Amino acid sequence: MPHIHVRHYPRNFTEEQLRAIDEAVTAAVTSTFATGEDTVSISLEPVTPEDWDSQVLAEIAARRDELIKAPGYWNES
């Protein structure tokens, strides 16, 4: 606890970029949840643009009550 799962368009991250994501997300989560770094896990899942709407946007729409930030591209109508 807590686990952060990030879905994104496919791309190759450098080790430096992965380290930066790890450090930034871990800092935000440990501060907000008042927990130690050893309790945080982070995963990255690439999703193709062709699958984004059916896999990610559909979940966002189905779980909108859990969102703390909606994507700016999302038209809820």
Give a verbal description of the structure.
This protein has 77 residues and is of the alpha+beta class. The chain folds into two domains: 3-46, 2-Layer Sandwich (Macrophage Migration Inhibitory Factor); 50-77, no CATH class. 43% of the residues lie in helices and 16% in strands. It has helices spanning 15-33, 49-62, and strands spanning 3-8, 41-46. A two-stranded parallel sheet has the order 1-2. The longest helix has 19 residues, at 15-33. The relative contact order is 0.20.
Give a quick set of tags describing it:
isomerase activity, 77 residues, isomerase, two-stranded parallel sheet, EC 5.3.2.-, 2 strands, Macrophage Migration Inhibitory Factor, alpha+beta, Tautomerase/MIF_sf, Tautomerase PptA
Give the averaged pLDDT, no decimals: 95
**Can you tell me the CATH topology of the largest domain?**
Macrophage Migration Inhibitory Factor
- CATH architectural name of the largest domain: 2-Layer Sandwich
- What pattern of helices and strands is seen along the backbone? EHEH
Q: Gap between N and C termini, in Å? A: 34 Å
* Radius of gyration based on Cα positions: 14 Å
- Give the tally of structural domains: 2
Q: Provide the spatial order of strands within the biggest beta sheet.
A: 1-2
Per CATH, the class of the largest domain reads: Alpha Beta
Shape: globular
Strand content range:
15-25%
Helix content: 40-55%
